[in-house]
Amino acid sequence: MSRSRLPRIAAACLAVAALAGVAAHAARRPPASGAGAVTRDGARAGTATRDASLDDAGYLALADRLGARLAALWNPRLRRYDPGPGATTSQINADLLLVHATAARRGHRGPARNDARARAAARFLTGPRIWREGRTRPGWRASPDVGDMHPVFQAEVAEALAAAYRARGALKLDAPTAHAIERQLARVIASPAWRWPALLLNQFNWYATIAAADATVNGHAQALANGLRRHLDRFAARAHDNFGPGLRFRYDPRWTRSALNFDSAEYANIVLGFSRSYGQAREAGMRRPASIGLLREWVRRALAGYWTHAGYLNWDTGLGYLRWHQRKKVGLAQGALIGIAAEPELQPSPRWGAWAKWMLDRGLREYVALVERDDRLPAALAYGVRSVPEPQRMAWLTAARYAANAMRALDAGLGKAPGSEPPPLYSFDPDTGRLAVTTPAYNTAIVAANGGAHPYGGLDLARLFDAHQEVAANIGGTLNNAFGLHVGSLRTQYGARRAAPTLELVRAPWGVGAKGGRRAYAGPFEDLRVRGSVVAGGLRARVQYRFTAAAIEGRWSVSGSGGRATVTFPSWGRAATVTATLRDGSRVAVTRRALSLRRVRSLHVRSARSGYTLVPRGEGRVRLIATRREGSQPLPGPTVAISLGTAPARFGARIVVDRR
């Protein structure tokens, strides 16, 4: 983004700060419940309770801290960052080249700056071990030993080389390397693999990044403006293929009924990352797209439906375990937050830009806090997920992307843009019944019909995390590892189903009664209510949930006769414990021996690093039941089982996630 856009962004964000009353570390009580009190952009619901925003110095300090950890990858003999054999060498060198180059251009002094390594990395990336001079598909390899030329490698290298070129004076970059950058970017952008109408699925973000890099280096600004406009026009014209109702994203628009297309939190944001090139294209003369209304609706759906207040993805994906909880994908997805925060024209209202920055900064901070808490880089896969193992080098790539994102945010002018903590947000997709919820206290989702994309799903909470993205209860799970009502063969958390009873919004600002439509049923809320039912074995179970900023209220009932009804509440970690506070104020451990709820005031589920309090409303007996590890709940703790007796039966509970 050029400097001429920074005053406009800063002014818009300062206006947001004035409207939202941003104050560092201030806490304010959320407004009273009532869906009617929420405007489309959250004008009355949006309150800033904590300031997690980073300024220029904060972004640089974060890059310094991660840069110091990544310094061990430098191989002085090879003159490059060397994570070992695999497909990440060009990406890690590219991300750290971007970090070093941006730090040099800013005149920074710290671990994020290393001019000698930047020069060496630039020579490596433009040299014969990475660059391939193909006639129809020139570009950059994944690594010297892996010839893969997926667009993700091309885009990350191209952007890094453009950053090095911009900083060539500060870096003292040699003329042959600078000329190689010019020539290689020109070759790539002119090749059939990259010039219009080339496209991989619907992922036009890669093409926008390459065109922006070439425009920066070679001045082909009109090619960027014309190319991005045509991509946006085509994307909007194919909206029925690219989106499902509620604007859930389809990974592969060629096969709209495929399980791949249930949704994709990671790839929706990766594609929305085109927004980082949008401002440069507009300055180059691109007219405002006719689809601007659709793009703003998509931004609304993406922020409310795919992100949490902890700056992590609210993650359901049609790619199943192939992508689920890969930390490197969060780093790619953060590009959307950077672009949304930096581009007022794409924001549904200025508040959404401030919320995007807040989520970005919170995610960056939480990642660094995790690194420093454990004194090592986090595993490539979060939460013990290992159905498709990821090698250690992907953990290095994740850290490099986070460091690069801090510098991308800095370059986009976000260090001068105050953020605002979002109010409680939700999104709803009427055809699948997917409901995503995030508040300053917790985040969760219900996935009523998952299209067979993953094993978990049903009418109950699919997962439950706290404000820091620590697991309060579970990350997925089925059977005893999940929230739900069981009566014989009847389960309200039934698992993988292509078609299932969908969830119905009963009270919400937008989406009540919706059956379809290419618009976002998403935004701030104060009082959100849903219900659903499922039938099996001559019984009918009904589930109702109410979500507020601080708590979740659930109600379960089963009609018909026969079978013993049980409601389950999961925990996380083998050392998890459950304590009952009795009505006389004393506390006892809940065990496998049943305890009457008549004696119980509340139950506290203490998971590995978080937990929640459960206030029962109804009769029954509570005990713990054993669990087994499964792919979507790899570290289960014991589950709280509340026996209700023989159907018909009913039960209610209030759930409050621990706050730290």
What does this structure look like?
This protein is α+β, with helices and mostly antiparallel strands and 660 residues long. It folds into two domains: 3-22 and 51-416, Glycosyltransferase; 425-657, Beta-galactosidase, Chain A, domain 5 (Distorted Sandwich). The protein has 16 helices and 25 strands. A hairpin with a 4-residue loop joins strand 15 (539-547) and strand 16. Helix 14 runs antiparallel to helix 15 (350-374).
Task: Record the SSE blueprint.
Layout: H1 6-20, H2 56-70, E1 74-75, E2 80-81, H3 89-105, H4 115-126, E3 131-132, E4 139-140, H5 151-166, H6 168-171, H7 175-190, H8 205-218, H9 221-237, H10 239-242, H11 265-272, H12 275-283, H13 292-306, H14 327-342, H15 350-374, H16 393-411, E5 425-429, E6 434-438, E7 442-447, E8 461-466, E9 471-474, E10 484-487, E11 490-491, E12 504-507, E13 521-524, E14 528-536, E15 539-547, E16 552-559, E17 564-569, E18 577-582, E19 587-589, E20 595-596, E21 600-606, E22 611-617, E23 621-625, E24 639-646, E25 649-657
Antiparallel strand pairs: 1-2, 3-4, 5-6, 5-13, 6-7, 7-8, 8-9, 10-11, 10-17, 12-14, 14-15, 15-16, 16-25, 17-24, 18-19, 18-21, 20-23, 21-22, 22-25, 23-24
Helix pairs in contact: 1-15, 2-16, 3-4, 3-5, 3-16, 4-5, 4-7, 5-7, 5-8, 7-8, 8-9, 8-12, 9-12, 11-13, 11-14, 12-14, 14-15, 14-16
